[in-house]
Amino acid sequence: MGWWPASYKNPQSAATFECLHNFHIMNLQGKLAHTDFYRSLEQISDGSGLESFPDRESQFMVMMREWRHIKMGKRFRQAHDPTGLSGTQEGLCAVLCCACPIPNVNLPEDWYQAPTDKKWLYSLLISKDANFKQKAWARPNDHHDAPLNPRWGCTVHHKPYLKEITKYANQDETSHCVGFSAIWDANNKKTKGLRATGVSAVTCSHHELVQPNGLGDLQVGEQYGNMDYILLSSVLSCVLVLIIIFYDIACQWGKGFCICMEKMPECLHLPEALKIKFKVPKFHLPAHIEKCFAPYAFNFTESIGLTDGEGIDGRWDIMDDHCNHWNWRKTVHLPESLLKKLLKAISEAVVHRLAFEAFTDGLKIHHSTKLALWESQVVVWEEGRDSFCPYNLPVNTITLSKLKLELAAEEHQKEVDGKGTSDHTISGMVIEAIEIEEVQCSLIATLEEKNLSKFQQTTIQKS
Fold this sequence. Notes:
The chain is α/β, with parallel strands linked by helices and 463 residues long.
């Protein structure tokens, strides 16, 4: 049985390896708080609660922090590194996604020379988002303890991160997307007295593993300075040719990304050869204005498939531990997950392919000229040679309310001119006809239902 001391200088208390191991697993899997575990040990020792024990909770927390730190180094083979734990590189102790493309790991040697129609296989899809439930209050008695592993795992290197984002403390980001401005304003409220208003994370979109150095705290909502730094830190080691980034406000944030990156430290600059695309997750896209739909829609983007981009929605040492535990559990169950997705993709691909070919054949017969023009426009738009988006549909500006208003204004003008002689005007008849048509459509839809209630049947008979 091993013993772990609370201090290496004249230790007075210790915990067994088994005790630390048990709490470690319970905390990762069940999110059991250290206080609850410690009080449980007291009740196991004395179920009556009458005996008084020395309070060793703070020592237990120190031991657990050291235990997590050493365990992380052990898992990633740092004990065998000549430089030891102190020589650990940034992001080295993060569980990587083994299903995402990683050169020299799971890609062929000539992946860089792949033909154009195969390059999408070697693109990285990542999602970024913020969680404002993870708040941290600023307290006068806060201890400024240096993290044991400040940059090894899934969190950003905190010291340079905080130094950099102070430059953007008063950054004003005006949103031009009306549909998302309400949510944006809500995220920037209630920041008084908080050391951190939330947490931002970057994950791989397909498999939802947290990226190395892809986690950081937020000070005032989703400020671009914070989000840019965390994203750049997470993809710094990427040597692929294409990254597709999914973000709730990609329509606004993506426009100035390159300009903001130039203001960041040079070590965070991405290579010029790296191509970046910005998309909005499927669930969040309806909240945007209409002109955002086609350019940022998943369904109109090549090489994405059925990805929806929605997979992502304490002390950083512990956050690293929890993120790595999440990544590892996802990795263990990856074969079953990928097999399930593959079987669904094969069956769906056959159905959609047949439907698409039948639809295309019909267009070739009746609209061959327009079809050829549209296909050429899509190719030009996907290659980035034209800003015109063929997926943008013409907006129908005529509504029933506008039509009623125009007809009413027309009838009023006739009365002013002395031309209105009948009680039943033409505009009134047109509006009444439109309303009758709406009732008929509603009635037809109701009749198509199989199981009608007694009330519905009575309403139909009266109609």
